[in-house]
Design brief:
single chain, alpha/beta, 7-stranded parallel beta sheet, 9 helices, 7 strands, binds nicotinamide-adenine-dinucleotide, SDR family oxidoreductase, NAD(P)-bd_dom_sf, SDR_fam
Length: 256
């Protein structure tokens, strides 16, 4: 119950899916959770759900693609809570499903603004707090798509590949300040991000699950808590000697 006692954790994209599951789990483990998201209504729901169970949480509306927004929010969080111990870079979008020769510059840029620059901006503005206290843990949401290629969502693959390398690079740079940086790489997890795609799939969600898990050892779609538990370990002091790790949470997809 107290794995994150006395820690302040900022989570981006915390209004939905895996960000929400992580926020609720962190609160149960004693963290003060800073729920941030573009979506104010859903983000406020998450805070209400946490505080109704006796947890500590506050919502900030935040667009991770805008540096001025990120800088302001993290400054306000620091003023309110004194520091930032944990940063979870979860906000992400999947963008259009096109191959390279069909992608427009605008489609590429809008995806990279959130999935790549969002991680960069949040890390940039959280790290100074961590340097000051000589401690911190950052967990980035990449994907199995950031580790290997396939025939779909090209821009998303490339963006998540950038997050994989941002993780290794920041782990290499910030270790001297006792700041750890790791990433999680889910395969398909049933969240609002993929529900629309799954429902539109020929044969519906049943067929979607069959096709999408065919290369996994454990042939079911993930649920948000499957990933949130891994994020909890990486965020907590239990992983004090773990940094620069790109951890698949994927039912065994990457093992094959
Ligand atoms: N669901 C999957 O199968 C899957 C697999 C691998 C990786 N991921 C990654 O996991 C992370 C979470 O995905 P999810 O499936 O829980 O998605 P989700 O759509 O349920 O939640 C994503 C959240 O990010 C927020 N968001 C989007 N753009 C934002 C912005 N510019 N600024 C702030 N918030 C923004 C959304 O409002 C939403 O609340 C994403 O980075 C995603 O790419 C998802």
């Amino acid at each position: 119950m107290n794995r994150l006692m006395n820690k302040t954790a900022v989570i981006t994209g915390a209004a939905s899916g895996m960000g929400r599951a992580t926020a609720e789990l962190f609160a149960r483990e004693g963290a003060t959770v800073v729920v941030t998201d573009l979506n104010e209504e859903l983000g406020s729901d998450v805070v209400a759900a946490i505080t109704s169970k006796g947890g500590q949480a506050r919502f900030w509306q935040l667009n991770v693609a805008r540096e001025d927004d990120v800088a302001r929010v993290y400054q306000e969080v620091g003023a309110e809570f004194g520091t930032i111990d944990i940063l979870i870079n979860c906000a992400g979008i999947i963008g259009v499903d096109k191959p390279t020769h069909e992608l427009s510059e605008a489609e590429w840029d809008s995806l990279f603004a959130v999935d790549v620059k969002g991680v960069f901006f949040s890390t940039k503005h959280a790290v100074p707090y961590m340097i000051r206290q000589n401690a911190g843990s950052i967990v980035n949401f990449s994907s199995i798509y950031g580790l290997t290629g396939n025939e779909e969502f090209t821009a998303y693959h490339v963006a998540k590949g950038a997050v994989t390398m941002q993780t290794k690079q920041d782990a290499a740079v910030y270790g001297k300040y006792n700041i750890r940086v790791n990433s999680v790489h889910p395969s398909t997890v049933l969240t609002p991000l993929v529900e629309g795609i799954a429902n539109a799939f020929p044969g519906g969600i049943v067929q979607y699950e069959k096709v999408n898990t065919a290369n996994q050892s454990i042939r079911r779609l993930g649920v948000p808590l499957d990933v949130a538990y891994a994020v909890l370990y990486l965020a907590s002091d239990e992983s004090a000697w773990v940094t620069g790790v790109n951890l698949p949470i994927d039912g065994g997809f990457m093992a094959r």
